[in-house]
Amino acid sequence: MRNTTLRDPADPASPRGNRRRRGSRVRSRLLIGVFLSGIAVLGAGAPTVISAGTDYKDAQRLAEETDVAERALALAHTLADERDTLTAAVAAAAVSGSRQPLDAALTPENRARADRKITELRAALPTGARDALTDLTVLREAAEAGDATPLDINAGYTVMIAALEDLTRDTARATPPDAADPTADALSDLIRAVDSSAATRGLLLAALVEEGEQAELARLIHTARAREEAALADFTALAGPSARDAYAETVAGDEIAAAEEYLAVLAAGSGFTATDRALDRVEIHDTLAARTDAQRTVLADLSAEHTARLAKARDSELMALQIKSGVVLVAFTLVLAVSVQTARSLTRPLAAVRLGSSRVAADPTTQEPVKYTGRNDEFAEVVAAVNALHSRALDLHQRALEASRDSGGLRAERDRLLAEQQELGAQLHQLHGAVHGMFADHAERILILVSEQLSVLEGLEEHETDPDQLAVLFSLDHLAARVRRHGENLLLLAGAEPAVMPTEPMPLIDVLRAAVSEIERYEVVETTPPPAVRILGVAARDLSHLLAELLDNATAFSPSGARVRLTGWCPGAGQVLTLHVEDEGPGLSEQRIAELNARLGDSTTPPAGADLGPGIGMGLYTVARLAARHGLGCWLHARPGGGTVAEVIVPAALVESTPTGYAPVDGTGATPAVAGTQAIPTVAPADPSTAPAAPADPVAPVPAQRDASAVAPAPPTHPSHQEHTRAPDSAAPGAASWTPEKTENGLPVRTRGVTPVGSLPASETPDLTPSRGTDAEELRRRLGGFQRGARAGHRDAAAEEDGPA
């Protein structure tokens, strides 16, 4: 039979095994408890100490950088003095043909002073500033050899000075909140003002002795003066009252007033007269130098104050680190002492109970009962153990409550941050709406002003009798038309619909003319006879703007002498219309084309200007917006033989047949051309009955021979300044008879009919060279239809919009 008798707890067990087991367990628990208590305190205090240490390191690093920036600012002032002296010396040496001014400017003392500061500071400078200083020796040698102009010296030194002054700007922007001060934000503006003041002084002295480059020097002087005034205005707006008062008190006096008078006279014009050069250059140098030195004194004082604030902030961070470390250390010691004392308070009663229980269990009949400070019964050990566990449970419960309170505070803080995030999101959305509304309002104002400007130009053109002045007015008219296109694009980017929406269909040829006429280098564009179709009025203007953006981009990246081809084909009315813009530029890589096509397909994400520069990509973004508005397809691909092709697909829903009587232009007939210095060459497709896969080779353009003295004072040097001529009010012989003088839907059709010279008999070849005695009325009749048709079209479109209302 199985023995089911349970062991009596009072029976004695093996003493050695019992003692070893119990002693090992209690000792281990107590040591673990003390260890965990210390670890918990250190874990709770470590983030605070680490954060304080990080703040102290940041404050120390910022203080050291500020000290380096202050020394770099002093070096920048030294280099600025050397720049201004050397700029005037190079100009004087160029006029006199002597090296004496250069030797006086680049004395060994001046060199040693700047070189000594560079040597002391080079190791502490960042890489950008250190690399910029390597050009100092090259500039000095170029000046001594006579290979550098005053403009070269000024530009080279300015790069080094800007790199050094950027250090002070960076430290001022990195000022922590506890050391923030309005003056710190204004330091960068005062630095710009002081540098511009010194640059103005050097350029003025060079201009007063320099024989040539007066226009460029005057422009640089005017720019430097304007930068100084703008920087001082920003400084006054941002700096605190004490800094403004210090500047007003320091930069004052008779010399300062005399310097201001000199600047008002010499820095305001576009050149220098004999009276200006007769002024005392030594007096000008002294007064301007005194003004610049006074400004530098204010800058040095404010920089020193900023450095002192950062040093004080560093000391505060060090004090906070020491206090937090001390608090954590005291807490750790206190917890360790309390833990040890608690362990001893547990082991003593337990030992007494254990020894008494063992004694009673060993000899329960003869031994005295266990005397217990509590209850003297058989449950004393259990009660003591329960009390000890209860004590530990209370301790753990207290920690749990503290943890719960901490987590509750974190949840409340999270809820507060979420609410603040939602509020900021709502404010941001409201601000976005306000900004878009502001852009739309300004775009509409720009369009109104441009319309008024075109009206004024029209009146001037009607009454102008001088052919030269009339040609200038036509150029201004063309520029105003380009401004109007950009204004309508700005309205598109702002998310607003155009105020006037054409309703009548527009012939494709007029759409292409309008696109070409609204670009800068319209004279390099070649076209082929377009299909005999019309574009619906709701999409005609936007299609014209889209093609203008693509043509602008193509002409901008085409080499000199290259042509840009605008071609199109369509099987017929109600079919898809395909348009090509081809350039002969260097072309794009497959990866770049893929990136640009992705941007053309995304009409919701604006271009990232931060990494490409201001305004980069806005043309493609405008194309994407215009294409998305009407469901047009637009993408780029490489052109065989070099260059890029932009392909535009117009849906069949936007294409309709032309009215009866439309006669497409063939390759030998007249081709309407954009107003310019020459007609736009055209290319006829190989088989007019089929849609070509690509445009044929272009016919050589027929240049519009022009007497420069009869139209403009001098030939322009940039394509954007080409003469802007007007087309005749009526089509030239050979042009399609249906071509209207002005559009009915508002598109700026600035065209005229041109018959290529090669297509006429020798006896009928017109003389394209106007004489000096050309009558103004004849010139106005020949060229006036270009702008007049565009303006009338816009007025008719506005009348269509107002009519139903």
TrEMBL record:
| Span list, region Disordered | 1-24, 682-805
- Compartment(s): Membrane
From which source organism is this entry? Streptomyces xiamenensis
One example of the protein's molecular function in GO is: ATP binding
Enumerate the spans annotated as Histidine kinase domain: 543-654
**Keywords, ordered alphabetically:** ATP-binding, Kinase, Membrane, Nucleotide-binding, Phosphoprotein, Transferase, Transmembrane, Transmembrane helix, Two-component regulatory system
The record's PANTHER family line, in alphabetical order, gives:
SENSOR PROTEIN CREC (PTHR44936:SF9)
Give the EC number. Answer: 2.7.13.3
Gene3D superfamilies referenced in this protein's UniProt entry, alphabetically: 6.10.340.10, Histidine kinase-like ATPase, C-terminal domain
Q: What is this protein called?
A: histidine kinase
Q: Which stretches are transmembrane?
A: 30-50
